[in-house]
Amino acid sequence: MLNHSVPKGAIFHATSHRRREVNITPELRQLVEETADAIRAMLASGKLPPPVNDARCNECSLKDICQPEALAGQGKQNQQRQDLFNPTPRESPRFSHGEESGNLILT
């Protein structure tokens, strides 16, 4: 893009205060371009996934902004809300008539 070769990059880990060199290969460059395109498409769609809240979060500089502990369960909660009024046949309770009383019995 600017006609300068950039053969290496570096990742700085804030908690350990260590820098790790990364070789910038054509494969890595292609992966970064594809990832950036996918992120742009996701942002344009307005449907962002909830944070993952795993071991990577402990060393992330964006943890205070992201708040993965507070938001990690939202995806599951949203799915449960959708499923609440749209049960699938295998998840639907079965009803039967009580022999003696004629009442419906949840089985």
UniProtKB/TrEMBL annotation:
InterPro entries for this protein: Dna2/Cas4_DUF83, PDDEXK-like_dom_sf
Amino acid composition bias (Basic and acidic residues), ranges on this chain: 91-100
Domain DUF83: 8-67
Protein name: Dna2/Cas4 domain-containing protein
Source organism (scientific name): Ferrovum myxofaciens
Region (Disordered): 71-107
Amino acid composition bias (Polar residues), ranges on this chain: 75-85
Pfam name, any one: Cas_Cas4
